[in-house]
């Protein structure tokens, strides 16, 4: 089944069950200061759950563009390294606002997966909330368990704790237990059998969660206690790309038709082949993922910039440029050339990508050009540093200069050094970073209020992302 049909089948199925199909909200919600990007299907409907606004229908269905690159949900580090976490992904959802509840949500989920999508029931597992011994003293979700028991053998129903199976929007507000549906698409040889929780939650790339059914039945009050909601709601979220992986009988989201046209284009442009070399494969996955995130953000009006959400977008694009530069040996702009493929593939479901295509290409190309220039200059300077280094370690102070004055990414410095058998004085680098943070704080305190926000924003985020990424990536490169 082609991805277009996977999406439309989902929406039509729920339309038949009296849901109204609504378009995806933009990824940047202008009226929600608590969230940088929409990171789940429910975010645009928050006000309906809280009872502050009324939907046009108590049943809705949609495919929401989600971005998990900041805050509580940040999957950026996984992207490219695993085969099922993306920065931007679509979350298919069906919603009941005080209308149907667990019985229908579970029965319809099963009907869709088995009768409509024809998934073999033997590869599915479900999870149920086991209850909690903490202050909430919640009971296990017997209602969900009994409903699942009618449709799936009991040894495929696994108990999950609060972390995995109790969903909360924040410190206050609607919340409740959830049931997740997982697939196990390992071949018999890949199965080292294993029972219960291990099987579903182990980090095997072919054992993945595809759908989360959230049963909102409580309200968390300001004093931390739970009260039973008068109106109960359903919030479901299914990863579209993961569903396509299952339905197209492949082992990775990147082998579905959501990604293959982009990957083919990268292969052509960079004269590489996907599936032959671990590092090249990671780079190709990173680029094919990130171009989607950046293109859709620009289409939604969030351009790369130096602060806030714009800065996150700039960093995602730079991450892609760096992987292309380092592993695909691509020293001139090329990511912008992938936009036309993306627009062809996604333009029908998301017209904004078609109508904004020219702008998206121009913005990406300009960003690529300027960052590649930075990389070039930085490499020359780094070479000079390496030449003058005595011993094995490059001082944190010098690496910091390169990072701070020339914008050269610290993780790239660390990578190049490790390739040359040298080490980076990370401690020294961190000390310089801290000093600079204090300097800019002090400077911003003397300035106007707007300026304070700008400065703090940029510095905080820079630190959080680039440095953390440097550490994680390095350990991973050693593994590859
Ligand atoms: P995981 O445990 O795999 O990280 P999750 O529990 O964080 O997923 P939910 O918040 O329950 O995910 O989101 C609902 C669905 O969205 C998941 O069941 C999954 O199919 C999909 N999903 C979540 N995160 C991603 C991602 N980064 N990329 C692609 N799909 C995702
Ligand atoms: Mg997650
Ligand atoms: Mg999960
Ligand atoms: Mg989940």
TrEMBL record:
Cofactor: Zn(2+)
Record-annotated membrane-spanning stretches: none
GO terms (BP aspect): alanyl-tRNA aminoacylation
Highest rank taxon of the organism: Bacteria
One Gene Ontology MF term: alanine-tRNA ligase activity
Domain Alanyl-transfer RNA synthetases family profile: 1-480
Name of the top EC class for this enzyme: ligase
Catalytic activity as recorded in UniProt: tRNA(Ala) + L-alanine + ATP = L-alanyl-tRNA(Ala) + AMP + diphosphate
Organism: Bizionia saleffrena
Keywords (A to Z) from UniProt: Aminoacyl-tRNA synthetase, ATP-binding, Cytoplasm, Ligase, Metal-binding, Nucleotide-binding, Protein biosynthesis, RNA-binding, tRNA-binding, Zinc
Task of the protein: Catalyzes the attachment of alanine to tRNA(Ala) in a two-step reaction: alanine is first activated by ATP to form Ala-AMP and then transferred to the acceptor end of tRNA(Ala). Also edits incorrectly charged Ser-tRNA(Ala) and Gly-tRNA(Ala) via its editing domain.
Primary site of residence: cytoplasm
Name listed for the protein in its UniProt record: Alanine--tRNA ligase
UniProt remark on domains: Consists of three domains; the N-terminal catalytic domain, the editing domain and the C-terminal C-Ala domain. The editing domain removes incorrectly charged amino acids, while the C-Ala domain, along with tRNA(Ala), serves as a bridge to cooperatively bring together the editing and aminoacylation centers thus stimulating deacylation of misacylated tRNAs.
Cofactor comment text: Binds 1 zinc ion per subunit.
Family indicated by similarity: Belongs to the class-II aminoacyl-tRNA synthetase family.
Presence of the UniProt keyword Zinc in the record: yes
Gene (UniProt): alaS
């Amino acid at each position: 089944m082609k991805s277009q049909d996977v999406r439309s089948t989902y929406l039509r199925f729920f339309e038949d069950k009296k849901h109204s199909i609504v378009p995806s909200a933009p990824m940047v919600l202008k009226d929600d200061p608590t969230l940088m990007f929409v990171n789940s299907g429910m975010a645009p409907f928050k006000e309906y759950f809280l009872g502050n606004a009324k939907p046009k229908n108590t049943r809705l269905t949609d495919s929401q563009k989600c971005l998990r690159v900041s805050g509580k949900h940040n999957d950026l580090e996984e992207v490219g390294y695993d085969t099922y976490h993306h920065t931007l992904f679509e979350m298919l959802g069906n919603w009941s606002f005080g209308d149907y509840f667990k019985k229908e949500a579970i029965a319809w989920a099963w009907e869709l997966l088995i009768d409509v999508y024809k998934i073999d029931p033997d590869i599915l597992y479900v999870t149920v909330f086991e209850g909690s011994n903490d202050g909430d003293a919640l009971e296990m979700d017997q209602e969900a368990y009994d409903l699942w028991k009618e449709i799936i053998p009991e040894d495929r129903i696994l108990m999950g704790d609060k972390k995995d199976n109790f969903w909360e929007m924040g410190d206050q507000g609607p919340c409740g237990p959830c049931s997740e549906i997982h697939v196990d698409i390992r071949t018999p040889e890949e199965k080292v059998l294993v029972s219960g929780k291990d099987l579903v939650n182990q980090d095997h790339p072919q054992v993945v969660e595809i759908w989360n059914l959230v049963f909102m039945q409580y309200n968390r009050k300001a004093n931390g206690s739970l009260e039973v909601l008068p109106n109960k709601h359903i919030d479901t979220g299914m990863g579209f790309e993961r569903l396509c992986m299952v339905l197209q009988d492949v082992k990775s989201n990147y082998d579905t038709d959501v990604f293959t046209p982009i990957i083919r284009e990268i292969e052509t442009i960079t004269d590489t082949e996907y599936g032959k070399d671990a590092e090249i494969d990671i780079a190709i996955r990173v680029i094919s993922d990130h171009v989607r995130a950046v293109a859709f953000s620009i289409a939604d009006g969030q351009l790369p910039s130096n602060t806030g959400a714009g800065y996150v977008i700039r960093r995602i694009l730079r991450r892609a440029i760096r992987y292309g530069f380092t592993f695909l040996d691509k020293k001139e702009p090329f990511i912008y050339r992938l936009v036309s493929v993306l627009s062809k593939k996604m333009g029908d479901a998301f017209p904004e990508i078609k109508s904004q295509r020219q702008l998206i290409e121009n913005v990406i190309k300009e960003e690529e050009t300027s960052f590649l220039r930075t990389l070039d200059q930085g490499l020359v300077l780094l070479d000079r540093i390496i030449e003058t280094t005595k011993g094995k370690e490059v001082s944190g102070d010098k690496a910091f200069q390169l990072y701070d004055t020339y914008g050269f990414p610290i993780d790239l410095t660390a990578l190049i050094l490790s390739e040359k058998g040298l080490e980076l004085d990370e401690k020294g680098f961190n000390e310089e970073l801290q000093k600079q943070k204090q300097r800019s704080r002090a400077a911003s305190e003397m300035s106007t209020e707007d300026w304070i926000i700008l400065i703090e924003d940029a510095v905080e985020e820079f630190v959080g992302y680039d440095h953390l990424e440097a550490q994680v990536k390095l350990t991973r490169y050693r593994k590859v």
